[in-house]
Records
---
Amino acid sequence: MVDEVPLSRPDVTGAEIEAVLDVLRSGRLSIGPVQEEFESLVARRVGVRHAVACSSGTAGLHMAMVGLGIGPGDEVITTPFSFIASSNSILFVGAKPVFVDIDPSSLNMNPDAVEAAITPRTKAIVAVETFGNPRHMERYRAIADKHEIRMIEDCCEALGASHKRTSAGAFGHVGVFGFYPNKQITTGEGGMLVTDDDRLAEFCRSLRNQGRGNASGTGSWFAFERLGYNYRMSELHAALGVAQMRRLDSILQQRAMVAERYIERFLDNSEIILPSIDSDSRMSWFVFVVRLAHEYTEEERDRIVEGMHRHDVGAAPYFPCIHLQPFYRERFGYAPGQFPIAESVSQRTIALPFYTGLSRRDGEFAAQTFELMLSRENLRRT
Ligand SMILES: *Cc1c(COP(=O)(O)O)cnc(C)c1O
């Protein structure tokens, strides 16, 4: 069943449809000029030298790991409060994710905890701009530089965010964007690795294309110099990306307006903890996630989410902690209580319907339904 006001909805206009049709008519469906155009639009926007389009954000993270030479025996510091790909990509190369707890206000890793977790085996930090918030990114980079390790910026949720004058994607030695349909811009499926490192960019172009040595057009098409993958992005996907990038400012602005309406709506409700953004940062709104006040339990949160679905309004518990997923518990023996802030936050978060062009009316309906479900939980208690 589809909710009347869904959690998320891609913003696809006639421009995107025309762009995809143009590719279909051109006869060139992969490895072509549209991917290059998409790459240069993203590189310019982020302010980095290179962008390497790929088939998903997860593929981009995997290439970043391989490209930085991370492997068995290495430790990589990351957050337990994220979408699972940020941590799974560490496992792809046989390295060990080392989780650190989060800062309860930004929901990004606590920078002091990051520094405290560094050991002689630490090879990199995977920093995630949770829900599009760039807080602490420059601190993580300073820590990485001080300890001579690498910073991989998982900016899959943060296209368009910035802190002071640095854009999301430019904090790390390498950054990775994702273009799944719920992201700020979408290619259906897709991702993009960004970096200032010439050698790393060239290496990842080769990884993306079966390990071919002629990523830049030299050498033979059938010279495979390393173990590579098929992580290419088709021209159809890239065409969607180009059309979406051209509208990026308008998309970001519309999303900020939708977020602002929710914030104003809930400002006086002491039972709802709103996202907090520091004054030097520009948030890029990926989702709109609120947290219930401390007295609420996980069961109450789950009932509120279910209640919203019964009223045809999308809602979701973003994110369940990675270390408590069955696979991670089994493999690494994690148990509840190890990352108390991430766990406490993740038990009380709710993502509300959020997408470019969410109308004032539908947003208001979602907000009202949410508040109605909250008041029902309060009635049960008394
Ligand atoms: C979306 C996302 C990814 C990548 O997802 P794909 O579906 O592989 O494009 C990676 N990390 C985070 C934090 C994400 O939100």
---
Amino acid sequence: MQDIKKNIQKIRAEIAAELKKSGREGEDITLVAVTKTHPVEAIDIALSGGISHFGENKVQEAVRKMPMISQPYDGFHFIGHLQSNKINQLLALKPLLIHSIGSLHLANKLHRALGRTNRSQEILIQVNVTAEESKSGVSFANAREMIYKIAGFSTLYVRGLMTIGKLDPDPEVSRPYFKQLKALFDEIRQNSPEGFDYLSMGMSHDWQIALQEGSNMLRIGSAIFGKRDYGAKQ
Ligand SMILES: *Cc1c(COP(=O)(O)O)cnc(C)c1O
């Protein structure tokens, strides 16, 4: 626990150094601390240690933990697979950004739930660039068409794209996938009104590569909080 603040400082310094190397000094990078499986105590420490965005990947877990958070924050991010029967519970938590909209079907359900309560929601489209069956998200080939369709839903604001790189110990393996998504991101951004500006890619083991390839939103868990213990009581 006492390492959390140190880890945050270290990553912030590394991000700044990496940006400098690529001539992007001072650029605003959103660091989303991924708090899944970690206790509320750890979330509070991170929030008091300079983190202002955190992410969870399970609605149930977020529902249980969020009321106990005692520090202020700017944004709760939902980054996991969203089941349609959990949409209302998720919306009650007022997520700043949902990173994981990967199908028209889910977008439609979300749109209808939002419409019932007169709300709108900022989302990212999750693209399964690595085409791995274990991952959700729209395929790269179908992404463009789906993004434009979802952008037509009056309650949904598509703010950008999200992907998960290969879970290979060698992060270089993910570079071509990150590059591919950045190219799609730039293309859509050029043809979009303002507001399409988040590229969420990069986790603890591959964020440097993602940042070099143009990411501006990093989702980092274990490099801040240590290894996850799925057996532990949360
Ligand atoms: C768990 C998770 C992360 C963070 O993973 P680390 O390797 O611990 O940094 C990022 N994104 C998603 C979608 C996750 O589920």
